Amino acid sequence: MSAQPTIYLVTGGGRGIGFSLVQALSTRPNTVVYAGVRSFPPGADSDLGRLAAQSPTVVLPIKLTSGSIEDNHAAAAAIKGKFGMLHCVIACAGVSSGLSSVLSATPSQMRSDFETNSISPLVLFQALAPLLLATHAASPGSASPKFVAISSQRGQITDCMAYTFDSYGCSKAALNYLIKKMDVEHPQIISFPIHPGSVKTEMGHAGVAALSVKLEDIGGISAEESAAGILSVIDKATKESQGGRFCTWEGEQLPF
Ligand SMILES: NC(=O)c1ccc[n+]([C@@H]2O[C@H](COP(=O)([O-])OP(=O)(O)OC[C@H]3O[C@@H](n4cnc5c(N)ncnc54)[C@H](OP(=O)(O)O)[C@@H]3O)[C@@H](O)[C@H]2O)c1
């Protein structure tokens, strides 16, 4: 009988950092990775469509529109039916409605960023926590299940003067608070937010273009590098070392 696989779920798994996380996880032995996408099924000619076709028992695309209670609970039911448990969730889907100021930020910018970046990870956790807790209950002495959120340094309050105001930063600050509270309320689950670096993705390029800067000129990293760093931090994380703490993809601890 083969050993129980380690089961991951990555949201925003169709492109950017999320896809690189799925791709890196798919190379690990005895691992299954659910790739959450809102546009389901992924096209046969998309990166995720090709990867899932190459590794159909390892990479499992799943419909997951951020914040949709229906999608999140349907995904949880599908994973429960197949495996009964889940070892690690990486909440990566995110949006940025662009730079603004306290005076110019519109309620719709604030709502959009909070909806995807702050509220959706809450909906995700509420749907999937029973599966993470089932993992812990099945082997309480083993590594604890994990719920990791891809946050941003722009959500720091301590060092917020390093950045201009934007609704995105507000939404990531709210996310950090939420994840820290998850960690406190659920001793069986290791929860923490992580900054992925300045990453050469659609969002990364758009974010610095607004400042007339190029990621290449400020040490921007590839999505593959970011994903490798994030997974290394996740692999090493224990409740004591990382639970409820904020760090970078390189494992450097950050103040909230
Ligand atoms: N790139 C950076 O420099 C950087 C820096 C700090 C933090 N981050 C964070 O890293 C995470 C990934 O960003 P990225 O750079 O990879 O951005 P990206 O390339 O723009 O990808 C964003 C991902 O989020 C998904 N998404 C957005 N809204 C969604 C929704 N309502 N439902 C489901 N999926 C949704 C997108 O899916 P679709 O393909 O369906 O649109 C896509 O997979 C985000 O949380 C971002 O805030 C990025």
From TrEMBL:
<dbReference type="Pfam" id="PF00106">
    <property type="entry name" value="adh_short"/>
</dbReference>
<dbReference type="GO" id="GO:0005737">
    <property type="term" value="C:cytoplasm"/>
</dbReference>
<keyword id="KW-0560">Oxidoreductase</keyword>
<dbReference type="GO" id="GO:0016491">
    <property type="term" value="F:oxidoreductase activity"/>
</dbReference>
<dbReference type="InterPro" id="IPR051468">
    <property type="entry name" value="Fungal_SecMetab_SDRs"/>
</dbReference>
<protein>
    <submittedName>
        <fullName>NAD(P)-binding protein</fullName>
    </submittedName>
</protein>
<dbReference type="InterPro" id="IPR036291">
    <property type="entry name" value="NAD(P)-bd_dom_sf"/>
</dbReference>
<dbReference type="InterPro" id="IPR002347">
    <property type="entry name" value="SDR_fam"/>
</dbReference>
<keyword id="KW-0521">NADP</keyword>
<comment type="similarity">
    <text>Belongs to the short-chain dehydrogenases/reductases (SDR) family.</text>
</comment>
